[in-house]
Amino acid sequence: MLKKILASIGIILFMGIAFLLYTFWSTGFFRKIEPKNEFGEVFQTINLPGVEDLAISRKDSFLILSVDDRAKKRDGEEGIHDLYWLDLSKTPFQPQRIPLPSDLTLFPHGISLFELGPHHYQLAVINHVKGKHSVELFSIQEGAVQHERTLRDPLLISPNDLVLVGKDQFYYSNDHGNTSRLGIFAENYLGVAVANVGYFDGENFRIVAEGMGYPNGLQYDSDKDLLFVASSRKFLIRVFDINSNGDLSQIEDIDAGTGVDNIELDEAGNLWIGSHPDLMTFSAYAAGKKELAPSEIIKVTYQQGERSPIEKVWIDSGETMSASSVAVLFGDFLFLGNVMDQKMLVLKKSSP
After folding, report:
1. Domain-located, residue 15
2. What pLDDT is attached to residue 289?
3. Cα–Cα distance between 21 and 240 in angstroms, integer?
4. What residues make up the domain containing 62?
5. Nearest in space to 321 (alpha carbons), one of 89, 20, 52
């Protein structure tokens, strides 16, 4: 009898140790962070906190910045939470706060910009206010930003990012499928993949892709009619064909080898992705238990049906900038945002 009890205890201990090792391994904890810079030196530091996402117009040379001081919010303090405009035609770059209606409270997360016509855009913003989620739609015309409407729906479960594919039409990621603490724990640490991607067709919300592990950043390639979805927990970039009715058909997964966050396209169609190479350290950093979290920027040259080359452009221990979440290329400049550092960075390409 004693032998059976000891054997059972041994099995339980083995399974517990195996679970811990798998969790640490699958979240990048054992990866050695070796700083790397294949782009250029820091050209400018912009002192805005939590610039988690960026949206660019290359034609009209401006960036929209999604800003939320999550560190202060975590600690129960009031911090900046706004949208900012960055004119890309002048250096040094000077962000300007975008005036919002007095009755609109905005804690922005993922953002997306869609060109409607000459100097005319729609801007979509994920908004989190006191545990309630919405999508805010804005019109930008000749540089003037105007709030259009607020969208709410039960299918906005835990929205993280979104990408406009037409006027009033967008895909969005629910980074968790559960709302309970136990369910969220299972997704974060057991790797349970039950999150999803939704679609708003201009009138209704619906779920179009399920069984995903922390879907995060989204990007739409209009030339190829493809949707790219970052699966942070699985270290994957998931690639989908877009059907005529807005449904998705998965083509393939790209193993990114890092916790991919927001995805941006350059003019050549390459993917630039802000990433978290060590999700366990990032989680501790986000909770205020660590001072730094490593950053990684990767560039993916997508080749359908083949092995897509992945270039590690910039890796940092967190001392220069912690928890990179987005990278936007504009000419010789690379704009780097993050989840909750107190500044964003602008790199300038080194001369050949």
Report:
1. no
2. 96
3. 32
4. 31-348
5. 52
